[in-house]
TrEMBL record:
It comes from the Bacteria. Keywords: Flavoprotein, FMN, Monooxygenase, Oxidoreductase. The lineage of its organism: Bacteria, Bacillati, Actinomycetota, Actinomycetes, Mycobacteriales. Residues 20-257 form the Luciferase-like domain. NCBIfam families: F420_Rv2161c (TIGR03619). Coiled coil: none annotated. This is TIGR03619 family F420-dependent LLM class oxidoreductase. GO terms for molecular function: alkanesulfonate monooxygenase activity. Its EC number is 1.-.-.-. Pfam families: Bac_luciferase (PF00296). One of its GO terms (biological process) is alkanesulfonate catabolic process.
Length: 298
């Protein structure tokens, strides 16, 4: 099982100084972390954010800073050597596919082939309105985005015709280092969404709210891979876990470790933790990193 570090909000551990976060990533990379990721939102409409807080227990306040993930990961790529780099998840459909393909190809080059990217469609129409992207049919647009990216990553000239955009005789270089950049979909568990993953993606990025019924979901996802003639054992299943809390609100590391190992036995190939969820200070991060990495060796 691979172990991941989610940098989202990690600047809070350094007095809000985002320039310290690549140093944390470098330390995690040196110690043996398998994956370094972050999250994504371009912004929020206040009323939509309030509704998300109320109905979904969204863990981030309206004034939480959301650094642009590809830019942040580019800084991380410069100071790391081995860990995979990704986003859990990037709202791919508020970005033009050609620009997104260029950004990811550049990141894969900078990191010498270490990108494993999660794509999603988000939940907030305001992000689509603000970027001039259509909110309707966004799931189909995400499939088109992946297909367009893969065309741009492997052919020059490239050509593609989708429902909302098209290009032909289009040269966009460089190609990524990897022959196939792994793409995971961060979607709710359903037969339709798992069909999408099996058709065009490489795995599932699992939100904590979608963990109930995980074992059945994994079985369904693997079944869809088989139905599309793909080896179900190749499906990457990346789980984002929050720590188990004691009654006093502190993180119970032993119980969290048991939870992580249970998800591994039930099909998770990677487990990702966000350090700020553990209530630790910066001076205790090395201890937390060592604990995280030890889980991958059990």
């Amino acid at each position: 099982m691979e172990i991941g570090l989610n940098l989202l909000g990690a600047e809070a551990l350094f007095g809000g100084d985002i320039s310290c976060v690549p140093g944390l990533a470098a330390e995690a990379d040196r110690r043996g972390i398998d994956l370094i990721s972050t999250g994504d939102h371009l912004g929020f409409a206040a009323d939509a954010h309030t509704q998300r807080l109320r109905e979904n227990n969204f863990p981030f306040p309206l004034d939480h800073p959301w650094y642009e993930p590809i830019s942040l990961l580019s800084a991380v790529a410069a100071v790391t050597e081995r860990a995979q780099l990704g986003v859990s998840v990037l709202i791919a459909t508020v970005r033009p596919a050609v620009l997104l393909a260029k950004q990811i190809a550049t990141l894969d080059r900078l990191s010498r082939g270490r990108v494993t990217m999660g794509f999603g469609v988000g939940w907030q129409e305001a992000e689509y309105t603000a970027t001039g992207m259509p909110f309707d049919a966004r799931f189909g647009r995400m499939e088109d985005t992946v297909r367009a990216c893969r065309e741009l990553w492997t052919h020059a000239p490239a050509q593609f015709t989708g429902r909302n955009f098209a290009f032909e005789n289009f040269h966009s270089l460089p190609f990524p280092v990897q022959e196939r950049v792994p793409i995971l979909f961060g979607l709710g568990p359903s037969p339709r969404n798992f069909d999408r993953i099996a058709r065009v993606a490489d795995g599932w990025s699992v939100n904590p709210t979608d963990l109930p019924g995980f074992t059945d979901s994994v079985a369904l996802l693997r079944d869809r891979f088989t139905a599309y003639g793909r080896d179900p054992g190749t499906a990457r299943i990346q789980v984002s876990l929050t720590p188990v809390q004691r009654p006093d609100g502190s993180a119970d590391l032993d119980a969290t470790a048991r939870s992580a190992q249970q998800f591994r036995r039930n099909g998770a190939t990677a487990v990702v933790f966000r350090p700020t969820a553990f209530g630790r200070t910066a001076d205790r991060l090395p201890e937390l990193l060592d604990w995280m990495i030890s889980l991958g060796h059990e």
